[in-house]
């Protein structure tokens, strides 16, 4: 009996099982993430890449926030035991739990970035100084990094929206490795979309989400120690 229990334990937690567990979770989360963003992905693929369509692209990105939050939650629940996996249930639990809180952060962020993008797209026609464009770019970068960290916080912790916003702003400089990681992933995502398509980015969604979760670990560890009781 002891040998049987030991064999079952080794099967569930051995190196090969751990690799299989994370691969399985990534595949399931990827499929569910695609399902979550599909209402926005399909029309985004049909839109012409013209500055006049920037507000429509922003509307297409609305489903991305809750779906990405659910993916972060599901990947954070990962257990190395292949006999104890239920990523689909974790994903939908995260989707339901974080839906409202995510949209309260995601919608204002999209609206602000849309305004900046439209201003930059028609910058020459506006006839404003060059330094104004530089300022807009800096604002967009800071807002994007803040939004990425806020999304991680609201996906993994049960804080009020205003507390999430404050914590995200606090950790912009408190954990620079997290901020730089979010910025790097944003550049990768933007470059992938610009040089290929939104579909290619979507197919790598679960891997990029896992990287976002890993690069945010210094921040989430600090939050667990200092703000969670």
The low-confidence runs, each spanning 5 or more residues with pLDDT under 50, are: 1-8
For the CA atoms, what is the radius of gyration? Answer: 20 Å
Distance from first to last alpha carbon: 41 Å
Shape: globular
Helix share bin: over 70%
Strand content: under 5%
The domain tally reads 1
SS summary, helix count: 12
Mean pLDDT: 89
Number of DSSP-assigned strands: 0
Describe this protein with a few key phrases.
mainly alpha, 83% helix, 12 helices, 229 residues
Structure description:
This protein has 229 residues and is mainly α. It has helices at 2-13, 15-46, 54-60, 64-76, 87-121, 123-126, 130-156, 161-174, 176-195, 198-203, 205-215, 217-226. α2 (15-46) packs across α11 (205-215), α4 packs across α11 (205-215) and α5 (87-121) packs antiparallel against α7. The radius of gyration is 20 Å and the shape is globular. Mean pLDDT is 89; it is low at 1-8.
Describe the protein's topology:
Elements (H helix, E strand, L loop, with lengths): L1 H12 L1 H32 L7 H7 L3 H13 L10 H35 L1 H4 L3 H27 L4 H14 L1 H20 L2 H6 L1 H11 L1 H10 L3
Helix pairs in contact: 2-3, 2-4, 2-11, 3-5, 4-5, 4-7, 4-11, 5-7, 7-8, 7-9, 9-11
In short:
Helix content is 83%, strand content 0%.
């Amino acid at each position: 009996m002891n040998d049987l229990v030991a064999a079952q334990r080794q099967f569930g937690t051995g190196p090969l099982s751990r690799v299989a567990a994370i691969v399985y979770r990534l595949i399931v989360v990827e499929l569910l993430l695609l399902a979550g963003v599909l209402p926005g992905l399909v029309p985004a693929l049909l839109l012409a890449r013209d500055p006049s369509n920037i507000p429509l692209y922003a509307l297409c990105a609305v489903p991305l926030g809750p779906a990405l939050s659910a993916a972060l939650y599901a990947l954070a629940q990962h257990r190395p035991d292949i006999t104890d996996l239920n990523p689909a249930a974790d994903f939908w639990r995260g989707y339901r739990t974080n839906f409202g809180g995510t949209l309260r952060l995601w919608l204002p962020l999209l609206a602000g970035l849309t305004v900046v993008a439209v201003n930059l797209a028609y910058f020459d026609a506006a006839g404003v100084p060059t330094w104004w464009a530089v300022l807009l770019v800096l604002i967009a970068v800071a807002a994007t990094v803040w939004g990425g960290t806020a999304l991680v916080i609201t996906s993994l912790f049960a804080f009020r929206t205003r507390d999430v916003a404050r914590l995200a702003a606090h950790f912009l400089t408190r954990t620079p490795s997290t901020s730089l990681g979010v910025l790097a992933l944003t550049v990768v995502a933007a470059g992938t979309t610009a040089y290929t398509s939104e579909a290619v980015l979507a197919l790598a969604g679960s891997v990029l989400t896992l990287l976002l979760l890993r690069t945010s670990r210094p921040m989430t560890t600090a939050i667990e120690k200092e703000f969670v009781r």
